[in-house]
Specification:
globular
């Protein structure tokens, strides 16, 4: 899923984030995609490295893709 598509999907359906298995990662995505907080700031808020934030983001995006695909099928 491309970033713009993901951003649009989360903006239109923020409840998708509630279906993620990790609530902290869901909140990080909510901060970025809904509230517009930069990834660097989110890393500082949670005391994570930016690299760790990107790993968590990638895993969450993969999980969201599975969730979205399961709804389509």
């Amino acid at each position: 899923m491309k970033r713009l598509q993901l951003h649009r999907k989360i903006s239109e359906h923020p409840e998708l984030l509630d279906r993620l298995s990790d609530s902290k990662t869901a909140e990080m995505l909510r901060l970025h995609y809904i509230d517009g907080v930069e990834w660097q700031r989110i890393a500082a808020i949670y005391h994570y490295s930016i690299e760790n934030i990107y790993v968590l983001r990638r895993k969450a995006v993969e999980e969201l893709q599975r969730i979205i695909e399961s709804e389509v099928n």
